[in-house]
Amino acid sequence: MKTYFILIAIISAILFGVSTPISKYLLTFFSEFQLAGLLYIGAAFGTLPIILLKWKTEPLKIVDKKNTRYILGSIGFGGILGSVFLLFGLGHSQASSVSLWLNLELVATAILGVIFFKDHLDKKTWIGIIITLSAGVLLTYNEGNSGIIAIAFISMACICWGLDNHFTALIDGINATQITFIKGAIAGIVNLMIGIAIGGGFPHYYIIFGAVALGMFAYGLSIVLYIKSAHHLGATRSQVIFSSAPFFGFLSSWLILSENIGIIQIITALLMIIAIWIIINTSHNHQHFHDKQTHIHLHTHDEEHHNHNHIRKVNVRHSHKHKHEKLKHDHPHFPDLHHRHNH
Question: ∠ CA 6-10-13 to the nearest 5 degrees?
Fold first, then answer.
């Protein structure tokens, strides 16, 4: 079960990583707001067929006020602000340099998680974070000064995405595909309208289609996979795996834009692999309490939290509304939807 969510987090990282050099190319045709809007509109288009196919069994429902705040936070910080900050930074530096600085998202997610979101990080996890950050610093040093303006924009983007990561991990009551659709539609329309209002023409339709298609995979499918992994691994641990995206971005910058790659990049890749391996093989164990709650998310019936009965087969992953009674127990766990507590 855990291996499945680790795998989809890695695929999510690959999809988002390769979008950096492609976005750099597309910025020659669009303004930052226009491209950000088209990318998230693509994310909404990419998830819409899935929502329609599952409408009878999983209709889009109105959520409570707490979840509404989480959704609005995710849209505002991750969909609107984060994407625009990234593209402004990308416009002031090479795609390879921007890819490297995206490692700051891991640091932002970890610090925000500990301070505000009841996330727990043990010593091994901190070691993994430090190794990942060190790898990013090594690559950045090797690249030289990518520009104060670019670094400032990327740092702001990473802080926004750090908040977004935690908000999406806490959203309960609607599934990952629905979250991505809502986020893509609202953030996409807002940024696109700002781009149109500011001014600037649009290129040929096939360039517009290319931007939307990129959004379908890099922002649509990638976000769905990340949210699913974050719900089960926790935002920080999922983000550690997702931190490999900058490496994929750097590699694809070499393949797509012919930017340089050398021995330092290979060393960094090995450091990232080591860091990810350390993080995904750690969890903590202590006696903890679960309050009574009702929610919906992807799950199986192979552990104590989901021992409810229903007509569906229980040997496959599925999603439906279910109840949890009060529970006190002791077992190794991640800070997922059921394990965000003080201890």
Answer: 140
